[in-house]
Specification:
The complex is a heterodimer of chains A (112) and B (112). Helices cover 0% and strands 56% of the residues of chain A. The termini of chain A are far apart. Chain A has no helices and eleven strands. Chain A is an all-beta fold and 112 residues long. In chain B, 0% of the residues lie in helices and 60% in strands. The N and C termini of chain B lie far apart (41 Å). Chain B has no helices and eleven strands. Chain B is globular, with a radius of gyration of 14 Å. Chain B is mostly beta strands and 112 residues long. The chains are: A mainly beta (112), B mainly beta (112).
């Protein structure tokens, strides 16, 4: 009964590959987010979707493309992976009327 | 650009001690401030503060916000080893979305 679930938990891949991370929430929230946490533990927003519509798009390389097939899912696709993409990626969700965001367990991406 | 600064960056105390973690911020159109606890995986929500001077309390944890001086503190009394974690402060600015801007966190270590 995990509220926000991400798959996979770990992803190890070579430079230049394309990979996807999936996120699903069963909280009935209508807003979902992707964050990147670097080696210094700094969490930074990447994208946000509200009711499948992109509302936040921070300065992120366009190799990163989020896709929201429905309100409960927000996937992150990354093309041409680079060493600097290595980080932990967190998905989160919230109700539109609330500032409280609930986080998934994270996906640790290692690019070799 | 919104900015959140936490101090200290790390703190090591003995079990039973009381600690105070600090968070100062500079944001446009402040809406709320949130505290999260991050152990090994997902940040978990602790408090949301929107009004100055009103203490939020949950067991041994409490937090208060000062909107005039632009800071918040998180207090933990009678610390236990289970309190060891990174404590994250985040602010929400009112741009019609719920983007969280995080500080770099305070790493708290409790020695038995």
């Amino acid at each position: 009964d995990t509220a926000v679930s991400q798959t996979p938990k770990y992803l190890v891949t070579q430079m230049g590959n394309d990979k996807s991370i999936k996120c699903e929430q069963n909280l009935g929230h209508d807003t979902m987010y992707w964050y990147k946490q670097d080696s210094k533990k700094f969490l930074k927003i990447m994208f946000s979707y509200n009711n499948k519509e992109l509302i936040i798009n921070e300065t992120v390389p366009n190799r990163f493309s989020p896709k929201s097939p429905d309100k409960a899912h927000l996937n992150l696709h990354i093309n041409s992976l680079e060493l600097g993409d290595s980080a932990v990626y967190f998905c989160a969700s919230s109700r539109t009327s609330s500032n409280i965001q609930y986080f998934g367990a994270g996906t640790r991406l290692s690019v070799l | 650009e919104d900015k959140v600064v936490q101090s200290p960056l790390s703190l090591v105390v003995h079990e039973g001690d009381t600690v105070t973690l600090n968070c100062s911020y500079e944001v446009t159109n402040f809406r709320s401030l949130l505290w999260y606890k991050q152990e090994k995986k997902a940040p978990t929500f602790l408090f949301m503060l929107t009004s100055s001077g009103i203490e939020k309390k949950s067991g041994r944890l409490s937090s208060i916000l000062d909107k005039k001086e632009l800071f918040s503190i998180l207090n933990i009394t009678a610390t236990q080893t289970g309190d060891s974690a990174v404590y994250l402060c985040a602010v929400v600015s009112n741009f019609g979305n719920e983007k969280l801007t995080f500080g770099t966190g305070t790493r708290l270590t409790i020695i038995p």
